[in-house]
């Protein structure tokens, strides 16, 4: 794509704010958030605990309605959850009574696809998350990292236009986490996906995101934004790791400096 060509806008968040009504006092979680997401972007969202990251993700997913402002997908208001947006949470919510394969096939089945298409989809995405050999296992037989890969395959099999991930690797050990990062980068590249990911890990954000946004403490607002290409250099690297050069250190320090203020 030529640089002068504009990317197709997938998500538009316009002056969004959300206040939770509680039994005691209202809690203003986020306010005045506006941004657009283009097709193919990998956006990572960082911010201090409680600043409203999950609230924003749930609004984009369609689980919550903003108190003020609007959220659009391809120009249409987001009215509720739908197949266009796949969601992956920190703790994979799999159906424990179903096999790995059945978990992945659940969405395509609900969409009424033919048996042949359902099988093709589950086979393809189980291969992508490197779990073909575990298709007939029960999900309780899997490790945490494997369960998260099933959750990812299940979200991908619904062929959403965007995947929203809330701290997807937060519960995993450091080794598994690094492998999952390489896997998600590969999936993003191979499928030309659009990704929105919440993380607490600055290195994770910098090494995956083509764009990183940093939020301030509650009520959360977007305070900083970076357009990055470290993830592309990691793809070229034999070991799939990012070169932490001068530019990387500069961005990381700027984010650390900002977060230290909270
Ligand atoms: N259902 C709810 N009812 C009332 N308040 C809520 C609800 N969900 C979240 N909050 C409050 O809204 C604010 C933002 O919460 P949110 O979970 O969006 O933040 P977060 O940045 O994702 O946090 P963390 O990084 O710790 O997961 C917090 O003050 C939280 O206590």
Structure summary:
With 262 residues, this protein is of the alpha/beta class. The chain contains 8 helices and 10 strands.
Explain how this protein is built.
Residues 11-242 form the ABC transporter domain. This is Taurine transport system ATP-binding protein. One of its GO terms (molecular function) is ATP hydrolysis activity. It comes from Garciella nitratireducens DSM 15102. Keywords: ATP-binding, Nucleotide-binding, Transport. The protein is α/β, with parallel strands linked by helices and 262 residues long. It has 2 domains: 40-67 and 76-84 and 161-262, Rossmann fold (3-Layer(aba) Sandwich); 95-159, no CATH class. 36% of the residues lie in helices and 23% in strands. The chain is built from 8 helices and 10 strands. A 6-stranded mixed β-sheet has the order 6-7-8-3-9-10, with helices on both faces. It has a 4-stranded antiparallel β-sheet with strand order 2-1-4-5, covered by helices on one side. Strand 9 (211-215) and strand 10 form a beta hairpin. Helix 2 crosses helix 3. The longest helix is centred in the last third of the chain and has 18 residues, at 174-191. It is globular, with a radius of gyration of 19 Å. The chain starts with 8 loop residues before the first strand and ends with a helix. The mean pLDDT is 91. Bound molecules: adenosine-5'-triphosphate. Adenosine-5'-triphosphate (ATP) binds at residues 20, 22, 27, 29, 47, 49-55, 218.
């Amino acid at each position: 794509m030529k640089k002068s060509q504009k990317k197709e806008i997938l998500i538009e968040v316009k002056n969004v704010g959300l206040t939770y009504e509680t039994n005691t006092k209202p809690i203003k979680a986020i306010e005045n958030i506006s941004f657009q997401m283009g097709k193919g972007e990998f956006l990572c969202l960082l911010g201090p605990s409680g600043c409203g990251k999950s609230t924003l993700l749930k609004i984009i997913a369609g689980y919550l309605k903003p108190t003020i402002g609007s959220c659009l997908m391809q120009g249409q208001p987001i009215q509720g959850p739908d197949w266009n947006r796949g969601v992956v949470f920190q703790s994979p919510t799999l159906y424990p009574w179903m096999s790995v394969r059945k978990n992945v096939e659940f969405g395509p089945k609900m969409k009424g696809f033919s048996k042949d298409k359902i099988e093709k989809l589950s086979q393809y995405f189980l291969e992508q998350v490197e779990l073909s050999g575990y298709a007939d296992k029960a999900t309780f037989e899997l490790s945490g990292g494997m369960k998260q890969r099933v959750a990812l395959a299940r979200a991908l099999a619904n062929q959403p236009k965007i995947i929203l991930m809330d701290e997807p690797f937060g519960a995993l050990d450091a080794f598994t986490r690094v492998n999952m990062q390489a896997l998600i980068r590969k999936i993003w590249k191979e499928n030309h996906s659009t990704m929105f990911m919440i993380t607490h890990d600055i290195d994770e954000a910098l090494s995956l995101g083509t764009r990183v946004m940093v939020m301030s403490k509650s009520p959360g607002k977007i305070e900083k934004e970076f357009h990055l290409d470290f993830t592309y250099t990691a793809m070229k690297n034999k070991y799939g790791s990012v070169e932490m050069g001068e530019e990387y250190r500069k961005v990381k320090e700027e984010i650390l400096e900002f977060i230290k203020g909270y």
